[in-house]
Amino acid sequence: MTSEKKITPYKDSTLNKKEQVEKMFDTISENYDGLNRVISFGTDVKWRKKVVASIKNHQPESILDIATGTGDLAIKFAKNTTASKIIGLDLSEGMLEVARKKIIGTELENKIDFIKGDSEALPFEDNLFDAITVSFGIRNFENLEKGLSEILRVLKPKGLFIILETSVPEKFPFKQGYHFHSKVLLPIIGKLFSKDKVAYRYLSESAAVFPYGEKLNNILQKIGFISVENKPQTFGVATIYTATK
Questions:
Q1: Residue-wise pLDDT tens digits, 23-50
Q2: Which has the closest alpha carbon to 60: 137, 165, 163, 156?
Q3: N or C: which end of the chain has fewer CB within 10 A?
Q4: Which residue from 202, 210, 164 is spatially nearest to 183, judged by alpha carbons?
Q5: What are phi and psi of 155, to 5 degrees?
């Protein structure tokens, strides 16, 4: 886990990782959605659909979407599930402002709350949510195990926890293609389209060192999650993890 903690957005900053991540996402919030589509060639939409389908099958009354960003997943839950309580939580007020604009004046305003909060100190009581998701945000946790322990605490017994996160393909030629995409294309796209020149370098570097597959399964089990499974997506460039309590 120590190698994962060393990767921060701004290498010369005196801010801790959490503060740096907040600053970075505040800066890139306005063009984050469009850049995501470009960077993943649109495949992130397909992955999120699978997460929504799994949550819908679980029929939760309450859903917490951690690292909700600009709210895409929370909005999909509101449109596709019967949940009466949906909360999108994020560190970045800039990202949350974009999320709130998406639902202003719609019926979703009464269904979703977008709140600023820390994933490692969740402002909720124990055993509160039927389902919890983290989509492309778990590698930004400053202390992964602390964040996962908090998620376990606020998840109801038999509740569903789903992580969607980048991973590294292991087979030729996808492994080589992934490295070219992440080390060459991603920083170039970030420099061309983003106000924050280092943000997309950080997103690439943090993905490369984050524990994925069985390593993350083992961490989830160590924290206390049960029925842990991982399902690689699109040749392994992303993985969907499911677990329960």
A1: 888 887 777 777 666 666 678 889 999 9
A2: 156
A3: N
A4: 202
A5: -80, 135
